[in-house]
């Protein structure tokens, strides 16, 4: 299964650039304001059954409180590239040792309603990696088998109204965790790329 993931990704030598694949939709909502660069780590724990790593944000955060997300965040001026950002943020948020992470490639950039252009970095995480959530940011770290997302019946589609615009949304529900918003959209991008790999 990891071979299919690898074939679906943009190679490490060809990182994606803005605008995001959803730029037209975001322009309707945000106009042409500059999107701030950010990166997330879509981590797949190696094993017989690869598992994707998610976080639950703490309830007291000012944005996206309590939501499921990938570890990641805003690009710092000192970050060399999106991989640097994703690894640094994963270390800060969930205590992930970067020496146990092997970047595989990228998905397409994705723009968020909060004004970021996210570069998703897909990577293998060694089976022995352990997580230590930062209590001020992360309430929980959990894993979902990649196979769960490959079952099309687990993908739910719906439409929501936001600032006078109708938006097509996707979500997944796994063991009481609702995976939606930007996280689900990036997952759908991965699934679509895997279908055409």
Structural domain tally: 1
Quick one: how many beta strands? Answer: 11
Main pleated-sheet profile: 8 strands, mixed
The H-and-E topology, N to C, reads as: HHEEEEHEEEEHEEEH
Q: So, the CATH homologous superfamily?
A: Nucleoside Triphosphate Pyrophosphohydrolase
CATH class: Alpha Beta
Outline type: globular
- Poorly predicted runs of 5 or more residues: none
> From the 3D coordinates, which CATH architecture would you assign?
Alpha-Beta Complex
Query: Which structural class should the secondary elements be placed in?
Result: alpha+beta
Average predicted confidence as pLDDT: 92
What is the CATH topology descriptor? Nucleoside Triphosphate Pyrophosphohydrolase
Helical amount: 10-25%
- Rg (C-alpha, Å): 16 Å
Tally of separate helices? 5
Strand content: 25-35%
Features:
197 residues, alpha+beta, Nucleoside Triphosphate Pyrophosphohydrolase, eight-stranded mixed sheet, 5 helices, 24% helix, metal ion binding, coenzyme A diphosphatase activity, NUDIX_hydrolase-like_dom_sf, metal-binding, magnesium
Description:
By secondary structure, the protein is of the alpha+beta class. The protein has one domain: Nucleoside Triphosphate Pyrophosphohydrolase. The chain is 24% helix and 35% strand. It is built from five helices and eleven strands, in the order ααββββαββββαβββα. It has helices at 2-8, 23-30, 82-94, 146-150, 181-195; strands at residues 36-45, 51-57, 68-69, 72-74, 101-106, 110-111, 116-125, 138-145, 156-162, 165-174, 177-179. The strands form two sheets. Strands 1, 2, 3, 4, 5, 6, 7 and 8 form an eight-stranded mixed sheet that branches. Strands 9-10-11 form a three-stranded antiparallel sheet. α1 crosses α5 (181-195). The longest helix is centred in the last third of the chain and has 15 residues, at 181-195. It is globular. The model has no long low-confidence stretch (mean pLDDT 92).
């Amino acid at each position: 299964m990891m071979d299919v993931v690898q074939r679906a990704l943009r190679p490490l030598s060809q990182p994606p650039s803005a605008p995001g694949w959803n730029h037209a939709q975001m322009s309707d909502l945000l106009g042409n304001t500059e999107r701030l660069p950010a990166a997330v780590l879509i981590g797949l724990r190696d094993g017989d059954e690869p598992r994707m790593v998610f976080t639950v944000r703490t309830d007291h955060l000012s944005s996206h409180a309590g939501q499921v997300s990938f570890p990641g965040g805003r690009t710092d001026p000192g970050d060399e590239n999106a991989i640097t950002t994703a690894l640094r943020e994963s270390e800060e948020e969930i205590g992930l040792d970067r020496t146990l992470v092997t970047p595989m490639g990228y998905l397409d950039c994705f723009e968020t309603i909060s004004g970021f252009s996210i570069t998703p970095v897909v990577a293998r995480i060694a089976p022995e990696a352990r997580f230590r959530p930062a209590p001020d940011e992360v309430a929980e770290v959990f894993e979902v088998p990649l196979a769960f997302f490959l079952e099309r019946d687990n993908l739910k589609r719906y439409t929501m109204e936001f600032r006078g615009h109708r938006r097509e949304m996707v979500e997944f529900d796994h063991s009481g965790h609702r995976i939606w918003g930007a996280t689900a959209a990036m997952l759908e991008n991965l699934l679509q790329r895997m279908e055409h790999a």
